[in-house]
Amino acid sequence: MQANNFAGKTIGLMVASGFDEDQFIAIQRAMLAKTAKLKIISRDAGLTNSWNGTGWGMSYPVDSTLSTTLAIDYDALIIPTGARHVDTLMNEVHAKRVLRAFLREGMPVMMQGEAIRLLDLVEDHAARSIDAKDENAEVAVDKNLVQIPLAVKLESGLEKLNVVMVASADESQAA
């Protein structure tokens, strides 16, 4: 990444138990290397569990529950891949509320892999979601929304999110 637009920013990682552990750790490492403040937002209170491909993985402390989360408290939202956690979030009214708030306010959002399905919760959002499993798909950017298909490296999506963070900061300064 060229400029570091994550430094000092508060980034929410929205999950439910069953998120992909490897991708979560990769996001965590990348954001911590850029000195971002990461906050885990989950429907689970206390701890939330990852999925390591064959079974339950590590547990992670939750910073904020979905039911109490406000978009205004964050600079960006990242939703990692993981079919199990996406299935849970699809049925979570507060996940819909939080995602809609980020998109409505033009705040940066990055969705990875299966998480792209969550756009189905936001009927009024104009972005067309990409097919997360399409091996020929590329990172898609629509204003403040970055969608990363499964076949694309996380770093490519984070670079796009970095650019979106610049545009978002410019718009908020202009307002």
UniProtKB/TrEMBL annotation:
Stored Gene3D superfamilies: 3.40.50.880
Keyword line: Glycosidase, Hydrolase
Entry EC number(s): 3.2.-.-
Domain named DJ-1/PfpI: residues: 10-115
Pfam families documented for this protein: DJ-1_PfpI
UniProt-recorded Gene Ontology molecular function terms: hydrolase activity, acting on glycosyl bonds
Catalytic class of the enzyme: hydrolase
InterPro entries registered for this protein in UniProt: Class_I_gatase-like, DJ-1/PfpI
Protein name per the record: Peptidase, family C56
